[in-house]
C-alpha cells in the first residue's frame, strides 16, 4: 500500500472495530481519507462506535452490507482475525483492491526502527523481555502489537530515537506487503491456526513475511532447533543470528552444555554468546532465570540475541533475565495450598505449548486441566507426556472427549470430565475441585488447555482469571 497520506479524499474501508480498527480508522481520518468502519457485531456491542461517529467517521454495525466494497474503495484494512473468505474481502479481491492489516499501516507511518517478534509459542514473554532489556540499555522501547497496545497508535508516537518492539501474529503478518523490521525474530513454528490458514504452508508463508523485505543491513534471529526456521534462514537476505538449546554453535546464542547432553544436571547449564571473533561470553546460568521451563530458556536466548544485536551490555541483559517473573496467564504461579501448587497457563492454546509446559516440571506429578475449542486436531501428540508426566486429567470444553481419549490410551486412571452446559464460572470451579481431589502434597495442578478458549470464554485471559478466582476461593 501507499503511505496513508496518499489516501486523502479517497475511500478507505476498515473491517472490524476492536482496538486496532479504531486506531487505524482515526489515523486515516486524520490524513483526510473518507473512512468507513464496518463490524458484524450489533451496534450495542460496539462501544467504540460512538467515539468514531463523533469524529465524523461512518460506522456500520450489524453485518456486512452488500455494497460496502465498490469501485470507489482504494484500500481495505482488516482486523487480523477476520477470515479472508468473508464476502467483503472476496469482493475486494474481485475488484483488485488491496487488503492489508494494521501492521502494514503502522510500518509506513513509523519513524522508529521496528523489532518484530513472532512464533507459534512464546511471543509475549520474549517481546516483554526485549522491551525490558532495551529499557535497561537506554534505547527507549515502545512495546505494542499483539501484546496489547494498537501498533498504529504506538507507531504514530514513536520518534527516531525510539525502538518499536512489536509482537506479531501470523494473522497480522499475512496482510503485509512492504513491512520491513530492523530485527525479525522467529521463535518456533508448530501446527496451529489451521482453521484460519487452511494449510501449514500458508501458515509458514505468513510467518515468513516477517523477513520478506529485510536487507543485508537487517538481522534475522532464528531458532536453530526448528527445521522450518533453518529453511527460512537459507532464504533470507538479512544477517542471521541463530539461537539453540540443542546445539553448541560456532556463532550465536546457545546453552552450554546443550540439552542434547542428557547427563548434565540443569544446574550446570548456562546461556552463552559466541561472537563472530570466536570469543565466548557467559550470560547467566539457566538456574538463574526468573521463570522456569526449557521453552523459557529458548525465549531468553531469543530476547538476549535481539538485545545484543542492539548493543545492550550483557550484564544488563542478565539482570533482566534474573528479575523477570513472567507474564500473566503464561505459567503463572497462582497459589500453594495444602502443599499443592497451582499454575495458570491459559495462554497454552495448542498442544505443543502444553507439552512444553508439562515438561518444565521435571520432578513433580501433574494434575492437568485441559480442553477448549475444537479446531479438528486429534491431540495424539499429547500421548507421550500423558504416559510419562501427567498423573490425572480434568477435561472441559468441546474437546473434552478427544483429550480424555488420549488420557485413557496413556493408561491414566484419574480422568474426569466436567459438564460444560452450566455457568462458565461453575464449570471452572468444578474442574478445580476435581483436580484438588486427585492431588496430594507436592503435586502441581496446571491449567494448560492445549486449545483456544472461544468455545466457552471470550478470551484466554478470562479463562485464566476464572481459574485463579476458583483457586483463591478454595
UniProtKB/TrEMBL annotation:
A GO BP entry: peptidoglycan biosynthetic process
Enzyme kind, highest EC tier: ligase
A GO CC annotation given for this chain: cytoplasm
Catalytic reactions on record: UDP-N-acetyl-alpha-D-muramoyl-L-alanine + D-glutamate + ATP = UDP-N-acetyl-alpha-D-muramoyl-L-alanyl-D-glutamate + ADP + phosphate + H(+)
Main localization (coarse): cytoplasm
Localization of this protein: Cytoplasm
Record keywords: ATP-binding, Cell cycle, Cell division, Cell shape, Cell wall biogenesis/degradation, Cytoplasm, Ligase, Nucleotide-binding, Peptidoglycan synthesis
Domain Mur ligase central per the UniProt entry, residue ranges: 117-306
UniProt keyword annotation of Nucleotide-binding present: yes
UniProt pathway annotation: Cell wall biogenesis; peptidoglycan biosynthesis
Keyword Cytoplasm carried by entry: yes
Molecular-function annotations in GO: ATP binding; UDP-N-acetylmuramoylalanine-D-glutamate ligase activity
Binding-site positions, ATP: 119-125
Any single Pfam family the record assigns to this protein: MurD-like_N
Domain Mur ligase C-terminal span(s) in chain numbering: 329-451
Enzyme nomenclature, EC number: 6.3.2.9
Protein's job: Cell wall formation. Catalyzes the addition of glutamate to the nucleotide precursor UDP-N-acetylmuramoyl-L-alanine (UMA).
Protein name in the entry: UDP-N-acetylmuramoylalanine--D-glutamate ligase
